[in-house]
Amino acid sequence: MVIEALGDRGLILKFSDEINQTAHLSVMKIDKFLLNFKIEGVIEWIPSYSSVTLIYNPEIIKYKCLLEKLEHFDESSVDFVVEGKTVEIPVLYGGKFGPDIEFVANANKISVEDVIKIHSGANYEVWMIGFMPGFPYLYGLPSSINVPRLKSPRKFVPSGSVGIAGGQTGIYPIDSPGGWQIIGRTPLKIFDVKKDPPVLFDVGDRVKFISIDEKGYEKLCR
User: What does the DSSP 8-state code read for residue 199?
Assistant: First the structure.
């Protein structure tokens, strides 16, 4: 683990410069360590793919003291088992809800039906939530449907849109601009400020996409 200062109130705990399962497991282990160890003065921490951003109050705990506390972290002594739930996400692929699905198919020299079968047939895990409230970055996208981001981001992407970009897949929780290739849309509300918790997912949860037709979509929208 490499520790880098982030201003006078933050640290970046880095395990790798690349996205990989080993680094992400380390992220999950230190997340558990911080949750159990409860270092006084640590305000919050934000797990990502291969690092953790930690925010602390320097009036309560000094920088050097915090580093000493973090030295107690020993990956080999942290038992970590994924306890996340499995969330099924119904998706209406293609058409007006998936304007980029033909591009994904053509770029990978397969049919649209193959894109749907491959995307919905894979098992995903929430590795990070960010970019906007409730946006899940999902690990597990098969390389056979990998595509780059749009060259020019859209000014408007509807909430529920399912996208692919750079070996990842994700779901837009609210209306927003976006540069991912959109292949479908779910009628489920991914982010709702009126609920507790407001986000449908948590890091470590597993996600399964279920292909539905227009009637199924309309039924779930009621």
Answer: B
At the fourth CATH level, the homologous superfamily of domain 86-221 is Cyclophilin-like (2.40.100.10)
Structure tokens at 200: 């449908």
Chain segment 121-171, per-residue pLDDT in tens: 999 999 888 888 889 999 999 999 999 999 999 999 999 999 999 889 999
pLDDT surpasses 80 at 46: yes
Parse the chain into domains and list their residue ranges: 2-77, 86-221
Where are the extended beta strands (E) located within the chain? 2-6, 10-14, 42-47, 51-56, 86-93, 124-129, 136-139, 154-157, 161-165, 168-171, 176-178, 181-185, 206-211
What pLDDT sits at residue 80? 59
Q: How far apart (Å, rounded) are the C-alpha atoms in residues 4 and 153?
A: 32
Whole-number Å distance between alpha carbons of 165 and 172: 13
Q: How many CA within 13 A on the CB side of residue 37?
A: 18
Q: Are 139 and 125 in contact (CB under 8 A)?
A: yes
pTM of the model: 0.82
* DSSP category for residue 54: E
Q: Write the DSSP symbol of residue 172.
A: -
**Cα-based distances in Å from 171 to 16, 75, 91:** 25, 32, 10
Residues 60-84 have pLDDT tens digits of 999 999 999 998 888 776 665 666 7
Do 86-221 and 2-77 have the same topology in CATH? no
CATH 3.30.450.20 fits 2-77, yes or no: no
Token pair 């925010």 is at which residue? 55
